[in-house]
Predict the structure.
Amino acid sequence: MPVVGIIGAGQLARMTQQAAIALGIELRLLASSPEESAARVISDVRLGDHRDLSDLRDLAKGCDAITFDHEHVPTGHIEALAADGHAVHPGAGALVHAQDKAVMRERLTAIGAPCPAWRRVESAAEIEAFGAEHGWPVVLKAVRGGYDGRGVWVCPSAEALPALADEVLGSGVPLMAEAFVPFERELAVLVARSPHRQGVSYPVVETVQRDGICVEVLAPAPGLDPEQAAVAQRIALTIANELDVTGLLAVEMFQTASGLLVNELAMRPHNSGHWTIEGARTSQFEQHLRAVLDLPLGAPTMTAPVVVMANVLGGDDPDVYARYEHVMAHDPGIKVHFYGKDVRPGRKIGHVTALGDDLETVRARARHAATYLSEGIYT
């Protein structure tokens, strides 16, 4: 049976293990610590640093495919693994578009994908000129390294720029400016593409954000016009093809009054796809394994009319297990997933999934379970 090497040992690798067991696939991890989420449940763990090429080469020996739990591996190291003859999915030429927001915007603009107005900026004067041209507020983003709201700053006006510029530009982080998008809601499309270019798309979902963190995913996106849903799926599949993505691609979008705009890309299993474990015929984790091994892709169809995933965030009381009894007794249909991570306030430590026929009922069930597990209170 094949061996798939995963660089990184977070919750995405941990949940991939569930799919690997059923398929008879062995996973090998590169983890920074034996206490990382996936390292606690996978037997073949190599301790090392994803920034160290020798550690990456040690992981890759004997693997049939290499893939990623995160996007922080240096591009040159990925190229070196491919030059050594290893099958790396996605490849460096694709993954750089999830690592570098400016490179992503340049490429998406070139292929005609709908994007907000944007520009690389290096000074307060350039930011002010961008705001004068495209209006305020202006969204400033770190070109590399930002996630879950980190590395993003909103400058409301030209008057507020000097104070913000001192903070952001003074850090030396390469920046880009984007026009602020007055969106109606945020959508996400998860697609998979194999090396021999088979592609599939999951239903378009709505993601609900709070303080820059996704707290809920509603599948399918409620009230979305079928034609617009097809447009969103077509955009995502086109991006996967043009960028030569192999594996999963999550395309986060803004729905606006005038259409869809691409916000971010991720090339790995994604928080917006956790609902697929129970809610789709083929989970995103199984789909990713199929794709990186160039196996025929699985059906992405839903197993229920409505699926809601709610993230569980850490609260003040770390004894989450003590609250299982209430959640499971209150709603035997709720599915609970925990990531084996230390509880810290605001940290994603797990998620719950509810399935059913009525959106408001299913959403209330998921919210109740997630809030009780996090805080020990009813909603």
Remarks:
- The chain has a mean pLDDT of 95.
